[in-house]
Amino acid sequence: MTDSAIKNHRALKWRSDRQVQRADETLAVEEPLEIRLGGRRFTLTMRTPGHDRELAAGFLLAEGFINNAPELGEIRAVAGSKGDPEPNAIDVILNVRAAGLRERLKRNFAISSSCGVCGKTSIESIQRRIAPIDTQLTVALREILALPHLMRQAQQVFSTTGGLHAAALFCRPHSQKHREPGANLELAILREDVGRHNAVDKVIGHALIDGWTPLSNYLMMVSGRLSFEIVQKAAAAGIPILAAVSAPSSLAVELAQEVRMTLIGFLREAAFNVYTFPDRVSDLAIR
């Protein structure tokens, strides 16, 4: 947990069993991040400071502006007026030809603007960009039920502030090339942010920068609900199993079905729902 992710603020605390008290409350920080492409302003997102390189990389992959790690060039700080690094801006150099980048910008901003308004069109557009997920990964029921506890243990800022979402990747021990078939899933990386989408982008960006992608042997779990955009981002990274503590939307389920992703919702320590491709849960007894 970094100091830039939290700050204290004086508050009045009321509880039914005692009088009002003054106390310092710890808050999750929210600040803008400007992402530039080749020095030009590209997009602005509100995020919790920290892991900004991962956020930029993950956003570009998850939204279809790059297709793989080789297309991601240098990620560098932006110099402020006094020459010091600007804390809320980052510049990305892509290894993508100008004409190809212009086409991706046009296509993917159009998809984003249509989401939720023209869902079928959005799904068809994503299908043309994302191949159906191909994996041999299966998980046991006990492994899935253990995920909420493993995730909560790693949520340092949430435990302090109660104000952040999280996304986490789980895999077998060791690298995906040297998996142990009988081993339990372990936490590979977790990121927190005020926005669910940012937390997912940071996790995917970390995986991209470290050379893990495509993530065909990983399971992702997110806090909150499963929206169309969350499924889209996970599918772009090749994640075969996506779980959340809350409900999916109808369009999220439709997209998961089309890209062959296993979607799990309402995951608590004693229950969960599987909406698509339940065969990846190896010991799920269906009545």
What does this structure look like?
The chain is an alpha/beta fold and 287 residues long. It folds into 2 domains: 31-129, Ubiquitin-like (UB roll) (Roll); 141-280, Cytidine Deaminase, domain 2 (3-Layer(aba) Sandwich). It is built from 8 helices and 12 strands. The strands form 3 sheets. The chain has a 6-stranded mixed β-sheet, with helices on both faces. Strands 4-3-6-5 form a 4-stranded mixed β-sheet. It has a two-stranded antiparallel sheet with strand order 1-2. The radius of gyration is 20 Å and the shape is globular.
State the main characteristics:
single chain, 287 residues, alpha/beta, Ubiquitin-like (UB roll), Cytidine Deaminase, domain 2, 2 domains, six-stranded mixed β-sheet, four-stranded mixed β-sheet, 8 helices, 12 strands, globular
- Amino- and carboxy-terminal Cα gap: 45 Å
Task: Based on the coordinates given, report the CATH architecture of the largest domain.
Answer: 3-Layer(aba) Sandwich
Rounded to the nearest angstrom, the radius of gyration is 20 Å
Question: What share of residues is helical?
Answer: 25-40%
The CATH class of the largest domain, by name, is: Alpha Beta
What is the string of helix and strand elements?
A: EEEEHEEHHHHEEHEHEHEE
* Strand order, sheet with most strands: 8-7-9-10-11-12
